[in-house]
Design goal:
By secondary structure, the chain is α+β, with helices and mostly antiparallel strands. It contains three helices and five strands. Helix 1 packs antiparallel against helix 2 and helix 2 packs antiparallel against helix 3.
Length: 142
């Protein structure tokens, strides 16, 4: 991709930046690296990419990688939360049933645990179903 003239260089840089943003949103870091390598390989030798542009794109790449790592960590934490819910089977849990003036503190024994498609853990208790997020206390029965 030979670029000639100042206006064409600006347009090419803006197009590349737009393509980089789309690659970040749609394809991830591999596509971003391929795009960056292609951009560096095909740049005009008489008018190379400025250091600031390169640093900006590398910072964008670094930010993308950090967001992917954070997403993986959150997924791992959610998975660990699911398995901790299983340890509640056979224990007494406390939760609030109802709302407003009808709200009452309830203690119940957990009979089973299952997971909704959205990953939310639901406890089946002697007092009905309760979401793991609604549990306010846990006690060993024995």
């Amino acid at each position: 991709m030979a670029v000639t003239g100042v206006n064409n260089t600006t347009t090419a840089t803006q197009s590349t930046a737009t393509a980089s943003t789309n690659a970040l949103n749609d394809l991830g870091k591999d596509a971003f690296l391929k795009l960056l390598i292609a951009e560096l390989s095909n740049q005009d030798p008489l008018n190379p990419m400025e250091d600031r542009e390169f640093i900006s794109q590398m910072a964008t790449f670094s930010s993308l990688e950090q967001m992917q790592n954070m997403n993986k960590t959150l997924e791992d934490m959610a998975e660990a939360n699911k398995f901790s819910a299983v340890s509640y089977i056979g224990k007494a849990v406390a939760f609030t049933k109802g709302s407003g003036e009808d709200a009452q503190q309830v203690a119940a024994i957990v009979n089973a645990v299952w997971f909704e498609p959205d990953g939310r853990a639901v406890l089946d208790t002697t007092e009905g179903e309760v979401s793991l997020e609604d549990v306010e206390g846990v006690s060993d029965i024995g």
